[in-house]
Specification:
Structural class: mainly alpha
Distance between the termini: 64 Å
Number of helices: 5
Largest sheet: none
Shape: elongated
Strand content: under 5%
Order of helices and strands: HHHHH
Oligomer: single chain
Length: 149
């Protein structure tokens, strides 16, 4: 009975985590919704009512609690069913998370574009904009992402 209970708790934490990822993060901020935009800012998070921000905070707290429970139970889980849950949960989370636009990625994409301008064209991205993809960068209207250098 103890083995079955541990496996059920582990399966429950995996299912609840998947539901939180899908309902709170993937569905409202998925690539499929944002694909038509030329530039993607984090403003899509603010198009929703303020209560959505509290929902996201509560979801992060819930996920942290579920991870803690899952870690505790996974260390005690035994048997084939526990291994199946562990080995299918990771790819499931990977698939769910792969459709989420990275919330804090604007500066990373800008840094990638700066590096591309320097490496491909040998130009200074603060002075010369020579790449046709530069217009797709979120902060293309700033010469420098972080202010004066």
């Amino acid at each position: 009975m103890k083995k079955l209970g541990t496996t059920l708790i582990l399966a429950g934490t995996a299912i609840l985590s998947s539901l939180i990822y899908w309902l709170v993060f993937t569905r409202p901020a998925g690539f499929l919704m944002l694909a038509g935009r030329a530039k993607v800012y984090q403003d899509y998070l603010y198009e929703y009512p303020p209560g959505v921000r509290w929902l996201m905070i509560a979801s992060f707290v819930a996920l942290a609690g579920l991870y803690g429970i899952g870690w505790y139970v996974a260390r005690r889980a035994q048997g084939r069913a526990a291994w199946i849950i562990l080995l299918t949960g990771s790819p499931l989370f990977g698939v769910l998370l792969s459709y989420i636009y990275p919330i804090d990625a604007s500066d990373r994409f800008n840094n990638i574009m700066d590096g591309r301008i320097r490496s491909v064209y040998g130009a200074n991205s603060l002075v010369q904009v020579v790449d046709p993809f530069f217009q797709l960068v979120s902060w293309s209207f700033f010469p420098s992402t972080y202010g004066l250098v």
